[in-house]
Amino acid sequence: AIPLNAGCLKPIDIIVPEGSLLNPRPPAAVAAGNVETSQVVVDALFAAMGVMAAAQGSMNNLTFGNEHHQYYETICGGAGAGMHAGRGWHGESAIHTHMTNTRLTDPEVLEFRYPVLLERFAVRRGSGGRGRWHGGDGVERIIRFLEPMTVSLLTNRRRTAPFGLHGGGDARPGENLLRRADGRTERLGSTASVQVQPGDAIIIRTPGGGGYGKAAD
Q1: Which of 9, 29, 168, 178 has the fewest C-beta atoms under 10 angstroms from its C-beta?
Q2: Do the beta carbons of residue 208 and residue 84 sit within 8 Å?
């Protein structure tokens, strides 16, 4: 019930030992701390306090471009269910979680400014974890390209499912697929960079959020 401001952190001491995973020393290899590592750190903190199951655990970073166009977006997914002070709640579906605060480009603007077609953007029903309070669902986003492009993905929770808490079920992990113009489909890893041709499409299915509490029989 208070506005976001730096004063909120004044009574909190944050201790992150030097040389640890979250405070590495050079020349340690680091990448995506702001967009990916931060997501799972927040999930771990909420889980340690027992108040909320895992959210989608990724910002689902997508970039594409060529010599004429460059574009970057993060894609929403499911939020975890939880309970605090005796009040439980279901996780929200198709929402940016934790540190993500970006809005997706409107389909009309995306297709007007870039040589792409947005084939599908819909809630991925059933991807949230079950429980007394169910986790939110992720989304499915399909973008078809009209020019040769380089497409890059930086995502998480493609192999490890977002966990449920206190008897709640895990959510479905995400999927990254490349559908070629001739109909062939290739499964992509959580991080990938591919060359696409006109008619090819990228399919991104984002993770749901974990459920909280054991579901009633």
Answers
A1: 29
A2: no
d(CA 69, CA 58): 25
Q: Are 192 and 131 within 8 A, CB to CB?
A: no
Residue-wise pLDDT for 8-37, tens only, equals: 778 889 899 999 989 999 999 888 888 899
Segment 40-45 shows an average pLDDT of: 94
Token pair for 112: 């007007």
Give the number of other CB atoms < 10 A from CB of residue 90.
19
* pTM (predicted TM-score): 0.92
Rounded Cα distance, 160 and 162, in Å: 7
Please say whether the beta carbons of 71 and 64 come within 8 A.
yes
H or E element, residue 73: strand 70-74
Q: Which two tokens stand for residue 7?
A: 């004063």
Helix, strand, coil distribution of the chain in percent, nearest 5: 10, 30, 55
Q: What are phi and psi of 115, to 5 degrees?
A: -80, 65
Q: Pick from 59, 100, 54, 94: which is nearest to 78 by CA? A: 94
CA distance 206 to 157: 9
Q: What are phi and psi of 48, to 5 degrees?
A: -60, -30
